[in-house]
Write a structure and sequence with these properties.
The protein is of the alpha/beta class. It has two domains: 1-130, no CATH class; 131-195, no CATH class. It has helices at residues 28-39, 75-108, 138-149, 156-170, 172-191, and strands at residues 3-6, 50-53, 57-63, 111-118, 121-124. Strands 1-5-4-3-2 form a five-stranded mixed β-sheet. Helix 3 (138-149) packs across helix 4. The chain is globular and about 55 Å long.
Amino acid sequence: MNTVRSAGRDAGTPGRVSGQGGASGGSPHERMRGWFTGRLPGDWFTGPPDIEADREEITVIGALPDPEIAAGAPEAERAAAVDGRIRRFREETRDLRIEIAREAERSFRRKVSWGVTCGGVTEMFTTLSVPVMTRLRQGERRVLDTLVDAGVARSRSDALAWCVRLTGQHADSWLADLRAALRRVEEVRSEGPRA
């Protein structure tokens, strides 16, 4: 089972700054992935990190090696070893992660969020919450108000975020297909004639 935990944002990450994204050629996501592949220390993760991006944020999640635990060890011992491995990585890499994030923010004009996966647990060290404005009709507002009244969410904003998460869980394959199609459109655009 894969568990996702979120911790508070590391201190020291600056606001959005201006700058131009990396080398020419390829899609923006390919350039971003290449930049992080070249910039991240090779011994941080067991393989290439998973890099996702939207208009505001770049998320970098790398896999840490599972801790070596004696066969038959209790689940509590395994969980504590995983937690210790994640905490050690977070503390030992904090300064360099902040430095890399600042460089990436200048290059790609997006905030950088960090996370790791270890022993079936994914923990986010930094996350970005972005307000999104939308207009809803009465029927849609009633759905949100029902979630608030039922105690599922504290506010309409929380209820809307809950709905988005639920939709994402149940539409993963459809959303994955849609994202793949959008990446293909991005690639075709990047191969087109230059103005």
